[in-house]
Write a structure and sequence with these properties.
Blueprint lengths: L8 H12 L15 H6 L10 E3 L8 E3 L4 H19 L15 E6 L3 H16 L3 E3 L7 E6 L4 H16 L4 E5 H5 L10 E3 L7 H9 L5 E2 L19 E5 L1 E2 L10 H5 L3 E2 L2 H13 L4 E5 L14 H11 L5 E4 L4 H4 L3 H8 L7 E3 L7 H7 L5 H14 L4 E8 L6 H14 L4 E5 L16 H16 L11 E9 L4 E5 L5 E5 L8 E9 L4 E5 L16 H5 L27 H12 L3
Parallel strand pairs: 3-4, 3-5, 5-6, 6-7, 7-8, 9-12, 12-13, 14-15, 15-16, 19-21
Antiparallel strand pairs: 1-2, 10-11, 17-18, 17-20, 18-19, 20-21
Helix pairs in contact: 1-3, 9-10, 12-14, 15-16
Length: 585
């Protein structure tokens, strides 16, 4: 093992003899290394004498049978004695960077919250081993780039960053869905690759890459552990992947190629991670997956069972946010999901991509639901979860989409006036069925995207919040002037910056609204609340709401689909508690 640039006499003997033998050590960008073990287990010479040689920089302190005969060692020793003597005392600060775990790493992440979680896990392991991080790629010793394959622009940006790093002679490790979905992609021939299910081996990959080796770990036969070290982008937010892959087969999607079939973590594994995160001071837990609604189908459980188990262990001041779910699977759990979204510790927020308002287009996308089924989900949640926020995604210009099809999408947006909507133009992803379909003219795709964007920007969803008092959970700063929080419906709230509020909840009066957020002021800045609504003792704050006492007559479970509960302001939180405690399991 190297220590501050010095190399053991034994390894020098071995290295020089290898250079004279028929065995060639892997060099930078020489050949693919399909696994770290290939670098070790492939180094054998015939007729080796007994003894052992320690492989330098091995994390596992593995020992191999002697690969060099004793006679050869004696012949070589005279040649290396003088060089070893010269190197023995050549220790200086200039070579400290050669010691594994002392280098700086630049990390860039593209894509979804699942990718963000993967990067946090990789950074945690690298930090635990001694590596440090820099936000300046110029001063980094190696670049770690985590990619997204959903859209062409994000993939193009990723490839561009890889090329820029290589031009500056920076060792590069790439991760994420792009290399996993297409390992032979042009531009990735001479970089190391770590697959989406191999992130717990990132230290080994970085070590070998810094030595000049090219490593490729792309097998998908297991789930990475959830109890690994982690560096959170936001120390107050824990992102937990509950599964990887999906059960869908959308004709336009490349993610299935990368993440594979559905693989769910056991309920207890996720619960343990959530509990550990809360003990570490986290105030929000986000559950992420390619499709949270499909969770558990491969291990004989389901999403509602998981959510109930997590809520049993979360402290009262920690909130839970459920990630993206597709309509087909959430349909089976509508009443249970509505019940859970009303829990005082669960944000009344759900991301349900519709992609198109046309049944013909949905059929060609192979989305496995109809417009009517999406509306069934949205209508039920809006009726049974006060002020619920339903976010969605829409693709403009999918192959064969007609003007009539697009008009149906516009009518769906007018109907629901989504407060959060991700609008994308269709991009053909290589290897997908949709890439072979006849495309809509590019100018027409842009026109439709522009028209949909104008429709989305034409309405405001938050005007009715002005003057209301809302309970807000605060987790980050927007800039030097604003602190950021979210309401129970996950509406973004900007308040005057106050570092003391981070990780706490408080009551805020909404004084202004905008398209993407609202602006508020603390009702009583000298008093913050860390309790769930069911345990809150802030009677003075409740009195300031200026509303009549909240009286709610709950119906019988069989009549759940025929009633609506209307409340206002911060009373939503207390109403949520009442609904959750009375609704059927």
């Amino acid at each position: 093992r190297r220590v501050h640039g010095g190399v053991s006499q034994q390894f020098n003997d071995f290295a020089i003899l290898l250079s004279q033998s028929s065995l060639k050590m892997p060099s930078a960008f020489d050949t693919d290394i399909d696994d770290i073990e290939d670098l070790v287990n492939g180094m054998y010479l015939d007729n080796a004498d007994s003894g052992s040689i320690s492989l330098p920089d091995s994390r596992h302190d593995r020992e191999l049978p002697a690969m060099v005969p004793q006679k050869a060692k004696l012949i070589a020793s005279s040649r290396i004695r003088e060089k070893t003597r010269q190197q023995k005392f050549a220790l200086s600060e200039e070579v400290v960077g050669d010691v594994p775990g002392t280098q700086k790493i630049y990390v860039k992440t593209y894509g979804c919250s699942h990718n963000m979680s993967d990067s946090e896990y990789m950074m945690g392991q690298l930090s635990a081993y001694g590596y440090s991080f820099t936000e300046d790629a110029e001063e980094a010793d190696v670049c770690l780039i985590n990619s997204c394959t959903v859209k062409n622009p994000s993939q193009d940006s990723f490839i561009g960053m890889v090329e820029r790093a290589k031009l500056k002679d920076k060792p590069v490790v790439v991760a994420g869905c792009v290399p996993q979905g297409d390992r032979n992609l042009k531009g990735l021939e001479d970089v190391s690759i770590i697959g989406v299910q191999q992130i717990d081996r990132v230290v080994e990959v970085v070590e070998e890459t810094l030595k000049g080796n090219k490593v490729r770990l792309l097998s998908k036969n297991r789930l990475p552990r959830l109890d690994l070290p982690k560096i959170r982008k936001n120390p107050l937010v824990e992102i937990i992947p509950i599964s990887t892959g999906c059960l869908g087969s959308c004709t336009y999607c490349k993610t299935r190629h990368a993440r594979g079939k559905l693989g769910s973590y056991e309920v207890q594994t996720i619960v343990d991670r959530a509990k550990q995160a809360a003990e570490e001071g986290v105030k929000e837990v986000w559950l992420t997956s390619e499709d949270t609604g499909a969770y558990g189908r491969d291990i004989e459980t389901d999403l509602p069972a998981l959510l109930r188990a997590i809520l049993e262990v979360l402290p009262p001041d920690v909130m839970l946010r459920v990630g993206m779910t597709n309509p087909p699977f959430i349909l089976e759990h509508l009443q249970a999901i509505a019940h859970i979204l009303n829990h005082p510790q669960v944000f009344a927020f759900l991301h349900i991509p519709v992609q198109s308002g046309s049944n013909d287009v949905l059929l060609k996308m192979n989305r496995e639901y109809t417009r009517e089924e999406f509306c069934q989900v949205a209508d039920f949640l809006k009726a049974h979860v006060p002020d619920v926020c339903i976010a969605t995604d829409i693709i403009c210009g999918f192959p064969t989409e007609t003007n009539e099809d697009f008009e149906q999408t516009l009518s769906l947006v007018r109907q629901y006036r989504f407060s959060v909507m991700n609008i994308s133009q269709f991009y053909p992803r290589p290897g997908t069925p949709a890439a072979k379909m006849k495309r809509v003219d590019t100018k027409e795709v842009k026109r439709r995207s522009t028209e949909l964007t104008k429709l989305f920007e034409s309405y405001s969803c938050y005007d009715d919040m002005k003057g209301r008092v809302e309970k807000v959970w605060i987790t980050e700063h927007e800039d030097a002037e604003h602190t950021v929080g979210h309401t129970k419906s996950y509406v973004k709230v900007l308040i005057p910056r106050d570092d003391a509020l981070l990780g706490k909840s408080t009551f805020v009066k909404i004084v202004d609204t905008a398209k993407w957020h609202v602006v508020g002021e603390i009702v009583k800045p000298d008093s913050t609340c860390n309790s769930a609504p069911s345990k809150c003792q802030c009677s003075s704050k409740k009195a300031e709401l200026g509303s009549e006492p909240l009286l709610v007559e709950l119906p019988q479970p069989s009549l759940m689909s025929n009633w609506k509960l209307v409340v206002s302001g911060a009373a939503v939180a207390m109403a949520s508690m009442l609904i959750y405690s009375s609704a059927p399991q």
